[in-house]
Design a protein that fits this description.
Blueprint: E1 13-17, E2 20-24, E3 30-34, E4 40-41, E5 45-50, E6 53-58, E7 67-69, E8 75-86, E9 98-101, E10 107-109, E11 113-116, H1 121-129, E12 135-137, E13 140-144, E14 151-153, E15 160-167, E16 177-180, E17 184-187, H2 191-194
Antiparallel strand pairs: 1-2, 2-3, 4-15, 5-6, 5-7, 7-8, 8-15, 9-10, 9-14, 11-13, 12-13, 16-17
Length: about 200
């Protein structure tokens, strides 16, 4: 299901579930949104395994069953993957805006993070300003893009195609460290956050 951002209309029913929501009306007008998406832009490269060889592929080329290399957990298959269209100009919340990594062709949502060994007091302060918190994956800290000086805010008024994916596991709250463009450590989405409707 692709989401849309509708700025006008009368909605007569609303459903909320975890991170996601649906609003609809008798006229067929409807929206699907994610309150704080953890997503990559469609051209982000993900380190996967094909024919026993590790290669980087665009996330938009991946599918359920493809094998992704993880940090500390070997290779995991994609359980769910989804794309949706997103225009960040409709929000003012930093964690929902889009950010480009300086000197890298990486675009992510503000709450999406890179895995680091340590965070500074300034980064902790910035994270709180973004309305989120420092999370952990294994022995790494997840520094949100909205709080990192390695990212710059995108202010373009345009629609981006975003993707996120869940790797196979027995814990719906678990996500993994994964490798993106040039061995940058980032994160997959948990099943709970993906929250299939």
């Amino acid at each position: 299901t692709k989401s849309t951002i509708v700025t006008t209309g009368n909605f007569y029913s609303v459903a909320l579930s975890g991170f996601n929501g649906i609003a609809g009306s008798g006229s067929g007008l409807g929206i699907y949104y994610t309150s704080s998406p953890i997503c990559y832009e469609k051209n982000t490269l993900i380190l996967v395994v094909e024919n026993n060889i590790e290669v980087y592929k665009k996330i938009c080329e991946l599918k359920v069953g493809d094998t992704v290399k993880t940090y500390k957990h070997g290779y995991k298959k994609i359980k769910y993957i989804r794309s949706f269209n997103y225009n960040p100009s409709y929000t003012r919340r930093d964690k929902r805006l889009l950010y480009k990594m300086i000197d890298h062709d990486v675009i992510v949502t503000g709450k999406h993070g890179i895995l680091v060994d340590e965070v500074t007091e300034e980064e902790i302060k910035n994270t709180k300003k973004c309305g989120t918190s420092i999370r952990y994956i294994d022995d790494k800290k997840v520094l949100p893009a909205c709080a990192s000086s390695k990212f710059e805010k995108i202010t373009d008024d345009k629609v981006f195609e975003l993707w996120h994916f869940v790797l196979e596991n027995d814990d719906i709250d678990k996500n993994y460290g994964v490798y993106i463009n040039n061995e940058i450590l980032s994160e997959s989405c948990s099943e709970a956050a993906f929250n299939i409707l």
